[in-house]
Amino acid sequence: MNSLEDLVQACQKAADSQSPETQVEAVLKEALKDIPHLKSLIPDRPEEDFLVHRSNNLTIWRIRFVPGVVYPPHDHGHHTICAVYEGAETNTFYEERGGELVKLKEQVYPAPCVFSLSGEKIVMSGNLGSTDMVALHLQLGDLIETHRHVWDPATSQKHEYSDKVFVQLAKYPPGYDIPVV
Ligand SMILES: [Fe+2]
């Protein structure tokens, strides 16, 4: 593939297939075989996220986690596939039991790495490393239109997802230019 458009088209074709979960993973695993080339296709923008593609069955984001950032536990409502191509993403998984968030496990995903999460998985995502983590995060649905949730990890309080609550409950490193939403 010679452009970001080619990669998006390959992912959309995979999302439209009979087995989107495995086909999208396969496209991303192939793309991660040549990280310098992949990086040449994706704009190196400083924002924590930007929308690359949106359709009714696929959303693609470019994600950047600076060192020390931790986003609150949230779900996605759709099967999610992540392709880490710089640094490492750390995810802490939770389960809701009787209104309480119960921590299950923490897992580090260093580049190059493709992994998937089911839509109902509750995950707190961050960067505990010393360099930026940069990834593509894809959902097999229109994430922006999806009803989903975010939790306060300190109190287990469950909220309807909004960017505002998400940012309020995130932990940012000192001096970080916190987005206004
Ligand atoms: Fe997420």
Describe this structure in words.
The structure is a single chain. The protein has one domain (about 5-170): Jelly Rolls. It is about 20% helix and about 40% strand. The protein has helices at about 5-15, 20-30, 35-40, 165-170; strands at about 50-55, 60-65, 70-75, 80-85, 90-95, 100-110, 115, 120-125, 135-140, 150, 160. The strands form 3 sheets. Strands 1-2-9-4-7 form a 5-stranded antiparallel β-sheet, covered by helices on one side. Strands 3-8-5-6 form a 4-stranded antiparallel β-sheet. Helix 1 (about 5-15) runs antiparallel to helix 2. The chain is globular and about 45 Å long.
Q: For the CA atoms, what is the radius of gyration?
A: 16 Å
Spatial ordering of strands, largest sheet: 1-2-9-4-7
Q: What's the main sheet like? A: 5 strands, antiparallel
Q: What string gives the helices and strands in order?
A: HHHEEEEEEEEEEEH
Q: What are the bound molecules? A: fe (ii) ion
The secondary-structure class comes to alpha+beta
Low-confidence stretches: none
How many helices? 4
Task: Offer a quick outline of the entry.
With 181 residues, the protein is α+β, with helices and mostly antiparallel strands. The protein is built from four helices and eleven strands, in the order H-H-H-E-E-E-E-E-E-E-E-E-E-E-H. The protein is globular.
SSE order and pairing:
Blueprint: H1 4-15, H2 20-31, H3 35-41, E1 49-55, E2 58-65, E3 70-74, E4 80-86, E5 88-97, E6 100-110, E7 113-117, E8 122-126, E9 133-139, E10 149-151, E11 158-160, H4 163-169
Antiparallel strand pairs: 1-2, 2-9, 3-8, 4-7, 4-9, 5-6, 5-8, 10-11
Helix pairs in contact: 1-2
Bound molecules: fe (ii) ion.
